[in-house]
Amino acid sequence: MEDKKMRDCSREIVKAQCETIGRLMRILFWGYGIFVVGAAAMGIWISSQASDLFAVSLANTGSGLAGYALFRGGMTVSFPQGVLNSAASLVPKLTYLIGYFVGILGHLVVWGMLLQLRTIFRNIDFHETPFSLDNCRALFRMGILIIVFGIVRGSVLRVLCSFWKIGGSGGSPADFALIIVGAVVISISYIFEYGTALQKESDETL
Asked: Pfam family example for this protein (predicted)?
């Protein structure tokens, strides 16, 4: 009897912790969403500004050019080594906008990850267990988004700069560490799906 009370007490503590984290996830999700929308609106405004308000600074690192694009002496966009070539300094506004909006794309992917986390904790509150098919799907989507984020960070900027003739083909085409993390999360989603099936079988037996 005493053991049952301790288990119930422990379960209530964990449930309260999950509810608290779920509320924090909701706040973080909406706060980040406001940030992304604001950044996108700022980007649209920046794109309407005169070209002479932009500049590009490049430095030769020995294994490729690295640098940043500048707007109004304060807002900068950094470019990894090997992404840009010398032609970028001739079109500073285009260079800046490419870097800026690729950054927005990355923020959108992160926002999608936060949505999945919010969904997971909402499902835990609704089903009173982390083992549900909805959470398995949310974890799977999270893994896919992490992989997409790794590709966005590694490839999209290089592809766009190469298309506009302001970039080279140097550097890694993707962030392979993030791709591995995404694959691990997808694997965990299948483990959760197996756990969900076992729990359902146990509930039906009882």
From this structure: DUF2975
Of how many residues is the chain composed?
Answer: 206
Residue 45 backbone zone (phi > 0: left; psi -120 to 50: alpha; other: beta): alpha
User: Does the residue 114 lie in any domain?
Assistant: yes
Report if residue 138 sits inside a domain.
Answer: yes
pTM, 2 dp: 0.85
Domain boundaries, position 133: 2-48+102-205
Residue 55 burial (C-beta neighbours within 10 Å; 0-12, 13-18, 19+): middle
Task: Return the structure tokens found at 190.
Answer: 């299948």
Q: Is residue 65 in a domain?
A: no
The answer as to whether 91 is a domain residue is no
In the block, tokens 């909406």 appear at: 30
| Residue 61 backbone dihedrals phi, psi, to 5 degrees | -90, 0
List the structure tokens of 122. Answer: 């909402």
